[in-house]
Automatic annotation (TrEMBL), chains A, B:
It holds the Pfam family TetR_C_24. The keyword Transcription applies. Residues 33-52 bind DNA. Residues 10-70 form the HTH tetR-type domain. Gene3D superfamilies: Tetracycline Repressor, domain 2. It comes from Mesorhizobium escarrei. This is TetR family transcriptional regulator. Keywords: DNA-binding, Transcription, Transcription regulation. Signal peptide: none annotated.
Amino acid sequence: MARTTGSDGEKTEAAVREAAVSLIARLGYEAMSMRQLAAEVGVQAAALYRYFPTKEDLLFTLMREHMAGLIEAWDAARPAAADPATRLAAYVENHIAFHIERRHSTHVSNMELRSLSHDRLTQILKLRTAYEKELRVILRDGAEAGVFDVEDTGLTAMALIQMMTGVIVWFRPGERLSISEVTATYLSMTMRLVGAKAHGGTTTCSAAAGEQRTL
Amino acid sequence: MARTTGSDGEKTEAAVREAAVSLIARLGYEAMSMRQLAAEVGVQAAALYRYFPTKEDLLFTLMREHMAGLIEAWDAARPAAADPATRLAAYVENHIAFHIERRHSTHVSNMELRSLSHDRLTQILKLRTAYEKELRVILRDGAEAGVFDVEDTGLTAMALIQMMTGVIVWFRPGERLSISEVTATYLSMTMRLVGAKAHGGTTTCSAAAGEQRTL
DNA sequence: GAATTAATTGAACGTTCGTTTTATTATCCG
DNA sequence: CGGATAATAAAACGAACGTTCAATTAATTC
C-alpha cells in the first residue's frame, strides 16, 4: 500500500512533533526508536523521513523551537520599563508558567543536550545563555540600585533558574497545589533569596554582605 | 588468548565502575555501549559480564552506591543535637561538598532513573526520599520553633535541593570560584530563602554567611 | 609440578537500530 | 477526466547492540 486516505503532511508532521516530545521525555532520546515513534503516530517508520531527514534533526528542531518559544514568551511578558523587583517578579512568573505548561518539552531540552552535534549544541546553548542573561541583568540592576542584596550575580542567577526549573520534577497539575500557589511561593522565595527590599515596606533581609562581584 | 598477566578481578571491577560512571555521565546510559566501556577499561566486552550480569545491573549498582554514599556522608556530618539553623547549615554544606566531589556519579543518579526497571527505580527513589526527608524535618523544626519563615515545607525542601544540586551543572573546579566560596554563597542564599533569624545576633539572614565553618 | 580455579579472549548469536529505496495510492490541478 | 505530485507502505540495508559460549592462559593450591 501507499498513501492512505485522509493523509495530510502538515497534520502528520505536527503529530510527529507532539509524539516525539512525549516519547523522548518519557523514554529518553536514545531509548526511543524511530519505529516506536512511527507507531505512536500511526504510520510507518519510513514516513518520518519525509519530515525530518535524521533522528537528530528531529531532536534539534524540537529543542530549537522550545528555546525560541521561551524567549518569545519572555519578550511578550517583560515589563516595558520598571524597577528591578517588578521585572524579577515578571521573570519568575513567566519562567514557572512556561515550564509547567511545557514540562515535556523542557525535559527534552534540558536532558538531551548531549545527543546534539557540536554545532547544534552551540546553537541551543547560545539561546539558553541569552535567556539567562536577562535574569543576570535584572539582578545586576537591582544590586546596583541597592534594592537587591546579591553577592554574586552569575551564581545567583544559576541558582534561581535551577530552583525554578526544578518545579517540573515534582509538580503535577491537579495535585496538592495549583499553578498560582506554586508560582506565588516561588516568587516569595526568590524575593527573599535576592534580599529584595519589600515593595514599599521595611527591609526583610540584607544589611551586611559584601559588595557583589560582576560576572 | 585468555587471561592476561597481572589481571586481578578486584582491580578490574573497580576500573569498570569508574569508567562506567564517567562514560554514562558523558554520553548517557543508553548511548554508552558495553564495547565502548570495555575499551575504556582495556578489556574485551565479554569480560564485563564476569562482574555485572547485565548492563542494567551495572547502572543500578552505581546508583545504589551513590545514594548510600550520600546518606552515609550525611550521617557522618549531621550535628548531634543542635538548633535548626545549625542543622540546616550542615545539610547544605554536606550536600554541596558531596555533589561537587561526585559530580559524575550525581549526574548518573539523577539523569538515568528512567533506565531502571520498576522495582529498582522504587529502591533508588526510596533512598532519595529518605535523604530528602532529613531536610524537610529540619525545615519543619525550624518553622515550628519560629526561627525559619517557611510557607510550605515540602515545596521549600524541593526548591532548595534542586538549587543546591544544580551546582554540578555549572561548577568546574579550579575556575572562578572555589568550593568554599560557592558553599558560602549557597549557604547564605539558603538562609535568606528560609527566612532564618540570625544565629544569635539580632537581625538579617545574610549575617549567617559570615559565620562559616570550614569545609 | 600437577590440578584447580580465576580471568579473559575471540567469535558468534539473534535482535534491533537508523536509514534508504522502490513501488503504490490518494489528492490536487487543469 | 487525466496527468502531476504529495504521502505513504513495504521491504531491505549494513551496522551496531547486549549477551553467550567455548577455548585458553595466568595464578593459586596442594
